[in-house]
Amino acid sequence: MVSPDQDADWMRTALEQARLGLGVTSPNPPVGAVIVRDGLVLGLGYHHKAGEPHAERMALADARERGYGAFLSDSTIYVTLEPCSSFGRTPPCTDAIIEAGMKRVVYGASDPDIRHRGRADGILRAEGIEVASGVLEEECREMIRGFAMGVKEGRPWVIAKVAMTVDGRLTRKNERWLSGEESLRYAHQLRAECDAVLVGGETVRCDDPALTIRNPLRQPPAWKEQPWRVVLTREKDSLPEGSRVFTDEHADRTIVMENISSLSKNVLEVIYNQYNTSIVLLECGGSLLRRFLEEELVDELVCVHTPWIGGGPVQAFPGDAFLPHELVLMDRTWISCGEDMILRGKVRSRSGN
Question: What residues make up the catalytic site (predicted)?
Fold first, then answer.
């Protein structure tokens, strides 16, 4: 008999596998799996990219490659997301589990699509397979938050990243960089885990950023493409032709959306539907960030607090009061990053919506 603590430990292993797929699986979710029998790991796997085998099939292939194919019967598979039960670009994972003769399936998060949610349970139980769900559910739901947002709202999950001085400024006098080297690497890790980076035209004109992944905390998979670089501006002609986003080797990954008088959800819907973006990172200036917050289109905030006082003239949130009601950061974490402190949390209204 496997204890709840043991189930949780094995699910943590599956989550470690899922993290390997962050930023490379969109429009599919990052999912990880581990197959266990009598305390022995038979196989590990994670979903690499859309159109390729899902985590369950990758773990099965790994087990067979290790020479454990004969031991798959009566084994348990731990998977971070409910196994798929319908044909898409790949066959149903429930079929593979049944064919392997597994005795038990343990998953963390249910399918966010109500058309499929819980369907795997019935299919597997009809074949005599024990099913347990909800193990480390919150952690597993966190892993697929971008995918779930797309299923439910038809838009990507939006992470806003902002670095500021103690007195709430976005710039320092006579210095290009505000945050330290460690925080810059953290920002590059965020880019590696996202599908697109969004900025305003003013950021391109003033800073000429590259918006590429160069020095992340962890090396992304070899097949990870540079994120889409989305520039919102009133007029494309106002952007310098020599800007790095137009002239570097990744220029084909730059998208300019002009005549944007109102952000609205439609902008994000276009990015989601046309470019397969599950998670978008905002690295914009204070004015555009303020607009995203006003329209409640920021789902998560990463705020890098630097030790400087008396920064430059650009305010993090310029102007007077601008929110119709207060927002609050939930699920907060503080991260010490060199000389900086990073506050990260989910953005929610005071009413909890």
Answer: 56
Predicted TM-score (pTM) of this structure: 0.93
Q: Does the annotation list 283 as a binding residue?
A: yes
Is residue 149 situated within a structural domain?
Answer: no
CB half-sphere exposure, 332, CA atoms < 13 A: 9
Number of domains in the chain: 2
Is 84 marked as binding a ligand? yes
Q: Can 225 be counted among the known catalytic residues? A: no
Q: What are phi and psi of 348, to 5 degrees?
A: -135, 155
- 296 plus 167 within the same structural domain: yes
Name residue, tokens 């739901």.
141
Is residue 161 located within the same domain as residue 289? Answer: yes
pLDDT in tens, the chain (353 residues): 789 999 999 999 999 999 999 999 999 999 999 999 999 999 999 999 999 999 999 999 999 999 999 999 999 999 999 999 887 778 999 999 999 999 999 999 999 988 889 999 999 999 999 999 999 999 999 999 999 999 999 999 999 999 999 988 888 777 777 889 999 999 999 999 999 999 999 999 989 999 999 999 999 999 999 999 999 998 898 999 999 999 999 999 999 998 766 666 788 999 999 999 999 999 988 888 888 998 899 999 999 999 988 767 877 777 777 777 789 999 999 999 999 999 999 999 865 45
Q: Are 169 and 314 part of one and the same domain?
A: yes
Active-site hit among 56, 82, 193, 202: 56
Task: Choose among 240, 290, 232: nearest CA to 261.
Answer: 232
- Contact between residue 303 and residue 162 where contact means Cβ atoms under 8 Å apart: yes
> Is 337 labelled a binding residue?
no
Its sign, for the CA torsion 156, 251, 189, 78, is positive
